[in-house]
Structure formats: structure tokens, C-alpha cells
Amino acid sequence: MSRVAGRTDWAEEEDEDSLQLPQQTITKNKDGTETIVTYSIREDGKKVKTTRRIKKTTIKTIVNPRVAERKHWAKFGLEKGKPAGPQTDTTSVAENILFRPMAGWKATTEDKSEEAKKKNSLKDAKIKCRICSGDHWTTKCPFKDTMAPEGVDSAADMKDDVPETGALGGGGSSYVPPHLRGRGGAGEKMGGKFERDDLATLRVTNVSEFAEEQELRELFGRFGHVTRVFLAKDRETNRAKGFAFVSFADRSDAAKACEKMDGYGLHHLILRVEFAKKAN
Amino acid sequence: MRPILLSGHERALTQVKYSPDGDIIFSVSKDHVVCAWFSHNGERLGTYHGHQGALWTVDVDPTSTLLATGGADNTMRLWKVETGELLMTWDFPTAVKRVEFSPDGRQLLGVTEKRSGHLGTIVVFDINPDPAAKQSKEHSLRIVCEDSKATVAGFSYLARYIIAGHEDGSVSQFDAKTGELLFNTQAHEEDMQVTDLQWSQDRTYFITASKDKTAKILAADSLEVLKTYTADTPLNSAAITPVKDYVILGGGQAAMDVTTTSARQGKFEARFYHKIFQEEIGRVRGHFGPLNYVAVHPAGTGYCSGGEDGYVRVHHFDKPYFDFMYEVEREYAQAQAQANL
């Protein structure tokens, strides 16, 4: 044990080291900010280095002299002898409130904001539709009847051979109740009258992110009666995601549109139009 | 908008007031203590001790040197704002429900409760604005409300009239010199108490809040109802905002029913109405109980509300509040700007 006199135990040595904290250093940066580095020991005994960069700005305001004088009044009563500045036991800052006056305000708008809040909280959950990659549940997808889920094309192709595997939600392995087996799995199609004509739906890709649904409707409306236009939009930015679905009432119109519009230049991009893949 | 939460009181707030410069907020609650706060950061300047009962009302004189309070201990007291020193105590047979200084600060009125054989009264005292001076013990004027007790009262412009709101929903106008009843009008619904009366900046008109779920702006001269704001809950307070043409209403379910309702149903929000168009333009929530009083910063930069939940919430308005305009207002502003070019 070749230790220096006084240091007999390794544990002691360590203790001494942690007690020697470097001094706080303040460096002035070129851009007028200050960097303050402080060291401290946390409750769990670990040494912490804190680096803060502070920019000091002097704000000058002209105040009423009476008000300025009152600011220097000594505190009295329960506050007597307390230091300047708000005390944490009596003063706190509440959460931020968004207050935007608007004409025609109604109590219902309040409820809507609540709904929006709920949506926001769901946002973090990363919802992604397996059919159109939109940010909704697959079951809520407007194309669940017409489109196959992404990446399960092969499963969709196979459905003629193995009708049992045709799934409700699109996942190939999910359970299908016996009374729905043999119907191609399209349980939700039982409504009948809501059945969409998958044959007359076009998938438009390479759409500019500034495109509007109305714009597409007008564009495709030239070829026949457009029953539905869906432009996938990003929830946060509200910009188009780059693809859309256009449904026609008549398949021949759709075919014509597909032929004419494929390669059409919209904004700065060239559209790619094809028939949407059929749902299983 | 990030409200500052002032939690210096242990019981329900009854009134909050800004000083005329807007830098200090005075708050009184049922816990016997008066608090003074700096409005810009919520720092408590001090507390005023001496009352033996719940406090109902507070007012500060135009120079922010004297503070008057009234409470359920049947006293009205005068304090030195700076030090919290008690300068004067007036005793009454019943509780003091409302105090207010005249615009020049040389008169102080108090509204006393009707109880145990005593009729409700409005008393006026002459005040010496010097805190060191001795205040007169005797009232200079006493108005007895024989029909229905007054719940709120205030001085009009130049202290010409005393306007009082009554328990039966009526508003009356007294001559501030003689105490003679000049005019009485049933402004609110019958037997729906007038809960608050606050003045416009020039004191030529005022807003009353009532349990009949409406607030009304009346002219001080004629007591003519100029505007009506209809809410869906009993109102405890109403204030007129300077700078922007809004009014703020505060209220909510009666305090005794609060525990049976959730905060959402309780309608414990400050409601903003457009003063001219009488239309609701927004709400600010935050309190867990009814709002007992709303007060507006004299410069129109913020407001604070005192709630049954024992909190004072101080709000500093942000940009959208000042930017908001109705289409017609915007057009008018544009036309004005062009005319000036």
C-alpha cells in the first residue's frame, strides 16, 4: 500500500475528491451572452455540472413616479420582513390560457376546443392508417372499402384462393367470425347501399403539397361526374401529403381521366394517375 | 395569457380592486384580512389586520393613500395603504356591504345591511385625504332605504348623484348633496338582487350585474338602460374595460350549489361581451367556484377576478385581445386611416 500519509482508505479518498468542487466560472461570449458554469452535488451524491448561457437585455420603461415610489414601499402585515419579489406560498403562475375574442362566440366553440385537445393528445399516439397512410384509424379510412391495405397486396391477390383469410381490418391473420367467412371478408360491406364502386376510383400521386381538394375536383370534373375527392393531408401542417383519391360515378370517365391526367403538370409536379388497387 | 394566481386568502373572495394607477390590487375575503398585491408580478405588499368578521368590500382613494373596508363585524375601517396602519373605525348596527370613495376622494359612502329591526342605509362621511388628520366620526349624509335595501352604491361623475342598486332589482338615483331620491327604475327583473355596480372611466354611465342573469349599462343621468348583456348564469359582477369596448361579466352557480356541480357545468368563467354589440366574444376560465368579483386595470391592460374558491387570478391581456375588431370596426378604422392620409 503505497499511499500518501493521511489517506488510509480508498473510500475516504473519493469523498475528498467529490467535496472539491471547481469554482463557478463566468465567461463573456463574443455575441454579448454570458456562459455560467457551476458545479454542484446532487442528492444521490453525483456531481453535476450546470452550464447556463444567459443573455441580458435591459428593458427601459417609463413609469408613473407614484407607482415607482410605491414599488419601494416596505412590506407590512404578514409579509413584514420578507424579501422582495413574489413569495411562492402566496403567488404562483397558472397554466397558460388561450384567449382569443371572436365574433359570434358560442359555448359550443369551447367544446370543440376540448375535442381538439383530445385529438392533440392522440397525436402522440402516432395513428397511421394501413390503407392510405393517413392519420386516422384503418377502420375510419374513407378507402377501406376500395383500397387494399399497404403492404398486403399479396394477401389481397390471394383472396380468391383462400377466402377465409380476408380480414376486416386488413391484417391477414385476424380472426373472422364464422358468419362472415366466405364473403371475401368484407363484413362491413353488408350495408349494400353504401358500397362504393371501387372500379371508378383513381389514385393520384405526386400531388403538390399546396394542392387543394377543390382544385382536384375541378381538374377531374372535366372528365365526368366526380363523386368523391380525398386528398390526404398532414394533420399538423395541413398540407397535402402528396396523394389523393378521386372517385367517378362512371368507370369509363375514370378511364378517360386516368389516361389524360397521367403525366399532367399540376403546380410544379407531374401527376401520376392510376386505378386504385382494389380492396380484397 | 398566463394568469398570476394569488392564494393569500383562506376563504372566498368578496371583492378585488385595482388602485387608480393600476399598480396595486386590493383583495378582501371572508377570512377577515385585507391583502395588497402588486399587479405586475403578484407580489404581496402587505396585509391589513383588525377586522373581526368576514369582509365584504374594499375601496381605495384616488391617490392610493387611504383604503376603506367594510365587513360583517359591523364596522367600516380606514387604513393607510402604505403601512397597513388602521386610521379610523366607524361602528354600525349592521354589516357594511359596500364602500366607495367619491371621485375626488373627499367623501366615502358605505352601504349597511338591513337586519334585526334596522333598515338598510347608505351613509356618507367626509374624508380628509391626509392620513395624519383626524377623520370625522359623524356622517354627513344618511339615506334610509325604506322599500328595498341597497346592496351596492357609488358616486356618479363629480359626485353629483349617488346611484344605488337594490335587492329588488331596481336602481335608484339620489342627490349626493341632499340625499333626496330623484328617480328609481326597475332595471332588472323583480326581486332579482343587483349584485354589482361598476363605473365607466368618466362615471357618466355604469354597469350593473344581477341575479337575473343579465348585466346592464345605464346612464347616470337618466337611468336609461343603454345596453343589456344576457348570460346563462346568475351574475355576481360586471366591469367595463377601458381602451377596448368590452365588458367582463363574472358569476356562476350560487355558492351553496357549487359542490353538486362540476367545474364545467358551474359556468365559473369570466365572460367577455362586446360593449356595443352586446354579443359574447369569449370566455376565460380558471376558477373552481363562482366569480365573486371582476375588476379591470384602469389602463385596460388586464383584469383580475376573485372567486369563491379563495383565489385571485390576475390576467394581463395579450395581443389578440387588443387586435380583435368586428368587421364594421375594422372598416371604420381603415376609412379613418385613409382619411388621415
From TrEMBL, chain A:
One of its GO terms (biological process) is formation of cytoplasmic translation initiation complex. The keyword Nucleus does not apply. Pfam families: eIF3g, RRM_1. One of its GO terms (cellular component) is eukaryotic translation initiation factor 3 complex. Residues 200-278 form the RRM domain. The keyword RNA-binding applies. Residues 1-27, 163-192 are annotated as: Disordered. Its main location: cytoplasm. HAMAP family: eIF3g (MF_03006). Component of the eukaryotic translation initiation factor 3 (eIF-3) complex. RNA-binding component of the eukaryotic translation initiation factor 3 (eIF-3) complex, which is involved in protein synthesis of a specialized repertoire of mRNAs and, together with other initiation factors, stimulates binding of mRNA and methionyl-tRNAi to the 40S ribosome. The eIF-3 complex specifically targets and initiates translation of a subset of mRNAs involved in cell proliferation. This subunit can bind 18S rRNA. Belongs to the eIF-3 subunit G family. This is Eukaryotic translation initiation factor 3 subunit G. The gene is TIF35.
From TrEMBL, chain B:
Transmembrane segments: none annotated. GO terms for biological process: formation of cytoplasmic translation initiation complex. One of its GO terms (molecular function) is translation initiation factor activity. WD repeats lie at residues 6-47, 48-89. It is found in: Cytoplasm. Its main location: cytoplasm. It comes from the Eukaryota. InterPro entries: eIF3i (IPR027525), WD40/YVTN_repeat-like_dom_sf (IPR015943), WD40_repeat_dom_sf (IPR036322), WD40_rpt (IPR001680). GO terms for cellular component: eukaryotic 43S preinitiation complex; eukaryotic 48S preinitiation complex; eukaryotic translation initiation factor 3 complex, eIF3m. Keywords: Cytoplasm, Initiation factor, Protein biosynthesis, Repeat, WD repeat. Component of the eukaryotic translation initiation factor 3 (eIF-3) complex. Belongs to the WD repeat STRAP family. HAMAP family: eIF3i (MF_03008). Component of the eukaryotic translation initiation factor 3 (eIF-3) complex, which is involved in protein synthesis of a specialized repertoire of mRNAs and, together with other initiation factors, stimulates binding of mRNA and methionyl-tRNAi to the 40S ribosome. The eIF-3 complex specifically targets and initiates translation of a subset of mRNAs involved in cell proliferation. This is Eukaryotic translation initiation factor 3 subunit I. It comes from Westerdykella ornata. The gene is TIF34.
